DNA sequence: CCCGCCGTGGGTTTCTTTCCCATTTGAACC
DNA sequence: GGTTCAAATGGGAAAGAAACCCACGGCGGG
């Protein structure tokens, strides 16, 4: 349970509730919640959302903002505020704080539904992506898999070496 | 809760009252009011207004005024009085002191309505921009998002580095 | 074969958001 | 100066959505 706990691995198909609820498999929900119950949902590419432990995501965000604050106080006030503002604006469109309710169930927030592109009652592919959990539109998932799988060996070797 | 308390993050669609009233989501109104009940509404670009805690806005305004004052007294702008005049004029029209009434309701002042470009009964996108809350015309918001989002990763990296 | 866990659906409660109306405030006009 | 009208402000109530909880059914393991 240190900063680098279990790797999130697994691929499961789940159906999206009529109320846009999605229950995560325990294998993924458990490790994900190991670092705290607060989660962050992010828009990746079209047809894909990613779910992060807030404890993992927040340092990245805070680091960026800390740098900004430092620059702000260094004197270039007005311009730098604008940059923080812009970053925050985009951040808002990309991220939302979420939490799981009983049975490890996630409610997809309003603005994220269209982005995922799955209608109520449809299937969602839940994929462990080592550091986060990804939610895929089945069709988009299929495309990514077929496109990137041939390269897999090379990518893995690159990481290993 | 210092000068940099909670980050203002979130994206919500709200409808504008027949009387140009807009109720802010509690998630954004709460942190915004954390530094005091006095707020400042400012014109950003066409189709976008920003709402600041006065405690955050005021230093920025003072800094801008100081710059103007200094330049004037230094005599550097002797033949550019017109520019200073214009800057002062824009500075005046750019912001207005506002406050929220019950239910976190904001009344959009007269001169700001046309700037936002949303007619009564229309939708407004309320966006947290880290240091302030922004009110967007839905169409303008969509344009900005699609235009700037592809660059998002690079922008954030630029800030961090 | 039985038992327990997990995923799914539904009902209920609680809170938020919005519509609508009453009251007050300010100003103009008689 | 008094009265009347218009507009803004505040609050109550209803509609809608979200969170909470429990119960059923299926699948796998013992």
Main β-sheet of chain A, in a few words?
A: 6 strands, antiparallel
Order of helices and strands of chain A: EEHEEHHEEHEEHH
Q: Which strand order do you get reading across the main beta sheet of chain A?
A: 1-7-8-4-3-5
For the record, the CATH architecture of chain A stands as 3-Layer(aba) Sandwich
Give average pLDDT of chain A, whole number.
85
CATH superfamily of chain A: Transcriptional regulator MraZ domain
CATH class of chain A: Alpha Beta
Shape, principal axes of CA atoms of chain A: globular
Helix fraction of chain A? 40-55%
Number of beta strands of chain A: 8
Strand percentage of chain A, roughly?
A: 25-35%
Rounded to the nearest angstrom, the distance between the terminal CA atoms of chain A is: 26 Å
> What is the fold named in CATH at topology level of chain A?
Chemotaxis protein chec
The DSSP helix count of chain A reads 6
Based on CA atoms alone, the radius of gyration of chain A comes out at 18 Å
Oligomer: homodimer
> How does the helix and strand content of chain A classify structurally?
alpha+beta
Total tally of structural domains of chain A: 1
Query: Uncertain runs of chain A with pLDDT below 50, 5 residues or more?
Result: none
Largest interface, and how many residues on either side? Answer: A-B, 27 and 29 residues
Characterization of the model:
Two copies of one chain form a homodimer. Chain A has helices at 26-33, 54-73, 77-94, 110-116, 138-148, 152-160, and strands spanning 8-15, 21-23, 39-43, 48-53, 95-98, 105-107, 123-130, 133-136. Chain A has six helices and eight strands. The relative contact order of chain A is 0.23. In chain A, strand 7 and strand 8 (133-136) form a beta hairpin. The first copy, chain A, has a single domain, classed as Transcriptional regulator MraZ domain (Chemotaxis protein chec, 3-Layer(aba) Sandwich). The first copy, chain A, has 161 residues and is an alpha+beta fold. The longest helix of chain A has 20 residues, at 54-73. In chain A, the strands form two sheets. Chain A has a six-stranded antiparallel sheet. The mean pLDDT of chain A is 85. Chains A and B meet through helix 2, helix 3 and strand 5 of A and strand 1, helix 2, helix 5 and helix 6 of B. The structure holds a DNA duplex (30 and 30 nucleotides).
